[in-house]
Automatic annotation (TrEMBL):
Biological process terms in GO annotation: transport along microtubule
Subcellular location: Cytoplasm
Gene Ontology CC: one annotated term: cytoplasm
Alphabetic keyword roster: Cytoplasm, Repeat, WD repeat
A Pfam family hit: WD40
Name of the molecule in the record: Cytoplasmic dynein 1 intermediate chain 2
Each WD repeat, start to end: 461-510
């Protein structure tokens, strides 16, 4: 028997003794009252019986609680109920009652339970006065276990809670017991660690995670900006300044030059660059050309690196596909890369000297273009052997159209060496070709009424005396306030940039019967030009002079590009490392902005978005410099369009 149960019985016995003393005191008071008043009726004396009866029931319950017998089976409960023995009439009436149920919780069963009645109090403890006949036994109390029907718990419940409920509460450790030592955490074997580190999935995960962290670290947002700060009067930012944003370079590209550059249209933060082979190869990979996709927010590591068998001389980010990049190589191959398939090209054109290869390029491809719309577009490439090919992006194994350009009027060779070309915005079948001799020609890619595919020799754009490095048409189309689609710029190694307008009608032939060239010594020398001063009919060509020339005082002009939004803004780079930004609406004599780098610059590209405030310039040292222009300079206004229109009318 537990200590708590023993204490409970002792408390009940003390209570029982107190009740007995109270009963004896009341009995003495009653006897004294009857002695004083002998005429008290029997009914008045019987009023105290209910209290005495309650006392008897309480005594029986207290004494019988400790002697309760276990319940019998339900089917034998009614037959096994014992009957109480009737005491003699001379003794006190019996106190037979059914004790209450035990305070312990009932058993988990729905069968009825019965309890045995407690034995009657000994006759000596009962008063002998006023003996009464035995009272009727009260009905027996039948107890049932009350339960609530619920749904069974789900199988995926907390395993720890179910285990604790099944096993019971865990025993607390004894203060004297020694502390248990936890088992050491299992460690992977060194071989397993190396295997995980060498897994391609692990390397891809680490590379992707590191790139994401690097982007976040280079986010230009300033957390310490004080919006209540008022700058001094002289501390305002110069709206005519050009700021350096980032330099995209990695040491693994050391010894390579940036040969091509283009900005992505779908992702304004991505810049794709084509690289030559390393000047001093260290590994086998240095013998290959590269095309790298850079993120302005992660300048120390490219997002993607694509391989090429030779130097990548031209690159193009597809304006209609966010994952496709096209490159032209020194061997004449046209390669297509997909960011979803890293490394090698997903498609490539065959080499011209390969057995069974279709006709294509057999010379370096320095220029690419993708005219058309999102639903109907094609790829156009030109090489220095005078071949212009038209491709479909889904099939580079064979060109859709091949055009071989020849110039029968040339005094030396009929071949046309194309260094750069541009596609007319209003006529995508017409090209403007810049050659290595300095002249610029127009050509048709397909036959049309009254004209055959090939060079249009009725007009020759004469203005450069050295190879033309870039031909760029004005991006403003018919939607602009002023249509400037017939204007184009050309850069050359003669240290100059020229502005041209496409000739629309045949001009009157000049009196010069020599081959047109910007260098008079070349054009009029009978030694270098057998056609000089040839007598006979008028020549078939008409020289076209540039509208304006922009001379450089530093070195070769390597590239020139119009601003995508501003009508009068363009930028040029030269081999001396100088970047100049001109605004024709303000001045044609000197650039509006100018900056310089340590190494020579070879290519540039404007950001292809609505604001287009950034320009990227690639150098011969393999670095790509990104510059930011003020919004007031690159945001066009109506006054800029009118000023550009007035300037063109005056030239």
């Amino acid at each position: 028997m537990s200590a708590s149960r023993r204490a409970e019985i002792e408390a009940k016995r003390a209570r029982l003794a107190e009740l007995r003393r109270a009963r004896e005191e009341r009995a003495e008071l009653e006897r004294a009252e009857r002695a004083r008043d002998g005429d008290r009726s029997r009914d008045e004396i019987g009023r105290t019986r209910p209290a005495r009866h309650d006392i008897d029931e309480l005594v029986a319950s207290l004494v019988g609680n400790a002697k309760t017998k276990p319940a019998e089976a339900p089917e034998n409960a009614a037959a096994a109920a014992p009957a109480t023995t009737t005491p003699p009439a001379s003794t006190a009436p019996p106190a037979s009652s059914t004790p209450p149920a035990s305070t312990a919780p009932p058993a988990a069963t729905t069968a009825p339970q019965t309890t045995q009645p407690a034995p009657a109090e000994p006759p000596a403890a009962r008063p002998t006065e006023n003996a009464q006949p035995p009272a009727a036994q009260p009905p027996e109390k039948v107890l049932y276990t009350k339960m609530v029907q619920t749904d069974a718990p789900e199988e995926h419940a907390d395993e720890h809670a179910s285990a604790a409920a099944h096993d019971g509460p865990a025993a607390e450790p004894s203060p004297t017991s020694p502390p248990t030592r936890a088992d050491p955490a299992p460690q992977a074997a060194p071989l397993d660690v190396h295997a995980v580190a060498a897994a391609p999935e692990y390397a891809a995960f680490v590379e992707t995670s590191a790139r994401i962290v690097e982007r976040a670290l280079h986010e230009p947002y300033d957390l310490l900006t004080d919006y209540a700060y008022v700058p001094p009067a002289g501390g305002a930012r110069d709206e005519s300044a050009i700021g350096h944003v980032a330099t995209l370079h990695t040491d693994t590209f050391a010894g390579r030059s940036v040969a091509a550059l283009d900005w992505s249209t779908k992702h304004p933060e991505l810049v794709v660059a084509g690289y030559t082979r390393a000047k001093t190869p260290v590994s086998l990979d240095d013998h290959d050309g590269l095309a790298a996709v850079w993120n302005v927010h992660a300048p120390h590591r490219p997002e993607f690196v694509f391989r090429a068998p030779t130097d990548v001389l031209s690159v193009l980010a597809s304006p209609f596909h966010p994952h496709l990049f096209v490159g032209g190589t020194y061997s004449g191959q046209v390669l297509l890369w997909d960011t979803r398939h890293r490394g090698v090209p997903v498609q490539r054109s065959p080499l011209a000297f390969a057995p069974g290869a279709a006709q294509g390029h057999a010379a370096p491809v320095y220029s690419l273009a993708m005219p058309g719309t999102a639903s109907a577009h094609e790829l156009v490439s030109a090489s220095t052997d005078g071949t212009v090919c038209t491709w479909a992006l889904d099939m580079l194994g064979r060109p859709q159209d091949v055009l071989s350009l020849t110039n029968a009027q040339h005094p030396r060779s009929p071949d046309v060496s194309v260094a750069s070309f541009g596609v007319l915005p209003h006529d995508t079948q017409r090209l403007c070709l810049g050659t290595t001799e300095g002249n610029i020609f127009t050509a048709l890619r397909t036959d049309r009424a009254g004209a055959r595919a090939g060079l249009e020799l009725d007009h020759v754009y004469v203005g450069h005396s050295a190879p033309v490095t870039r031909v760029a048409f004005h991006p403003a189309g018919s939607r602009a306030p002023v249509d400037l689609g017939d204007l184009f710029l050309s850069s050359s190694m003669d240290w100059s940039v020229a502005l041209w307008r496409v000739a629309s009608a045949r001009a009157k032939p000049t009196g010069a019967y020599h081959y047109p060239h910007a260098d008079a010594r070349v054009a009029t020398s009978t030694r270098s030009n057998p056609l000089a001063f040839r007598a006979g009919a008028a020549p078939a060509w008409t020289p076209v002079a540039p509208l304006a020339r922009f001379e450089s005082e530093h070195d070769y002009c390597m590239d020139v590009q119009w601003h995508p939004q501003h009508p009068a803004l363009f930028a040029q780079v030269d081999a001396a490392g100088r970047l100049d930004v001109y605004n024709l609406a303000k001045s044609t004599e000197k650039p509006a902005l100018s900056t310089r780098t340590d190494a020579g610059l070879n290519r540039l590209s404007w950001e292809r978005c609505e604001s287009a405030a950034r320009v990227a310039a690639g150098g011969f040292d393999g670095r790509i410099h990104v510059y930011q222009l003020a919004d007031a300079l690159v945001r066009p206004t109506d006054a800029d369009w009118r000023a550009m229109q007035r300037w063109l009318a005056s030239t």
